Amino acid sequence: MLKKVSFLLILLLFPFQLFSAPKNPVSSVKKLVGNIRYKKNDKAIALIDIKSFCKNLLPGDYEKLSDGDKKKFEDAMKEYIQARSFPVALKYFDKIDINYEKPKKKGNETELPSSIMYKGSEKIQFSWILTNSSEGYLISDFLIKGKLATETNRPKIESAYKKKGLDGLVQLIKKASK
Q: What is the pTM assigned to this prediction?
């Protein structure tokens, strides 16, 4: 009985230790990939720095949004990533080993160069971009062929935001998530 009570006290006193992001970039990425492979999307999305991702999609405009509007945009992006990005990632990461190189620290970000062998012979190189927060390392972007995912998607996001405002943009993102 004492062991059970001790265990429960540890869980109550140190909950953030159990559910926080790993303290090194490779562990964070491996945890993300594992969660995607096993379709644990809620756990996978918790390893993504949605706030940084959204800031990079709407640079300059994001900071001007109210807290409520930021949350709407972030929630829509979470929904989109879970519905669209994770299934694509699963296609590539399912049953494929990822090779990780040495992380490169650049300011408050860390780049983790990686590669996979696709269809047995095609080597695909890419990098994970991570931010280090008090919670641990979180994935904030993805670099492939010299372009960040946020750079690739920014023109569409900014254009929709300018034409339709935030509510229109959120509706488009939610529609694309289905």
A: 0.84
Count of domains for the chain = 1
Q: What is the dihedral of CA 107, 79, 118, 129, to 10 degrees?
A: 0
d(CA 35, CA 1): 33
Q: Counting beta carbons within 10 angstroms of the beta carbon of residue 9, is it exposed (0 to 12), middle (13 to 18) or buried (19 or more)?
A: exposed
CA within 13 Å, CB half, 101: 14
DSSP H or E segment with residue 118:
strand 109-118
Q: Is residue 55 part of a domain?
A: yes
Question: How far is it, in rounded angstroms, from Cα 29 to Cα 167?
Answer: 32
DSSP-derived secondary structure letter, 22: P
Cα gap 55→120, rounded to integer Å:
37
Residue 5 lies in a domain: no
pLDDT in tens, the chain (178 residues): 444 333 333 433 334 434 467 889 999 999 999 999 999 999 999 999 999 999 999 999 999 999 999 999 999 999 999 999 999 888 877 778 899 999 999 988 999 999 988 777 888 899 999 999 888 999 999 999 999 999 999 999 999 999 999 999 999 999 999 9
Q: 42 lies in which domain range?
A: 21-176
| Residue 128 β-bridge partners | 112, 142
Q: Is residue 168 part of a domain?
A: yes
